[in-house]
Amino acid sequence: MFEKALEILPGANCGACGFPQCAAYLAAIMEGKVSINECKPGGAEVAEKLSGLLGIEEAAVLSPRWPGFSAVVE
Fold first, then answer.
1. Which positions ≥6 away from 74 have C-beta within 8 Å?
2. Whole-angstrom Cα distance, residue 58 to residue 24?
3. For the chain, first and last CA: distance in Å?
4. What is the spatial distance between Cα 44 and Cα 24, in angstroms, rounded to a whole number?
5. In the chain, helix, strand, coil percent, each to 5?
6. Which of 4, 16, 72, 73 could be stapled to 40 by a disulfide with Cβ–Cβ 3.0 to 4.6 Å?
7. pLDDT by 10s per residue, the chain, length 74
8. Which residues have a Cβ under 8 Å from the Cβ of 16 and sit 6 or more positions away?
């Protein structure tokens, strides 16, 4: 199931979720350590697909740890 779920993630390995790689983020999801909707590049679409595959409650998809990003570029 891990490999199938990993295919759902965009594979950007951008770190926006707080993990250095998508695989590490997915492992944390499967261990119940992190919310299913932390993947910023994948957004709600990826969260919903992972929810369906992994059987994680919809409430987890709708409750982001970070409601949004903001940045100051100088």
1. none
2. 22
3. 43
4. 19
5. 45, 0, 55
6. 16
7. 899 999 999 999 999 999 999 999 999 999 989 989 899 999 889 999 999 999 887 555 555 555 555 555 66
8. 38, 39, 40, 41, 69
Q: What is the SS3 assignment for the chain?
A: CHHHHHHHCCCCCCCCCCCCCHHHHHHHHHCCCCCCCCCCCCHHHHHHHHHHHHCCCHHHHHCCCCCCCCCCCC
| 8 A C-beta contact, residue 27 and residue 33 | no
Domains in the chain and their CATH numbers?
2-62 (1.10.15.40)
Give the DSSP letter of residue 68.
Answer: -
Burial of 27 (0-12, 13-18, 19+ CB in 10 A): middle
**Integer Cα distance of 12 and 21 in angstroms:** 8
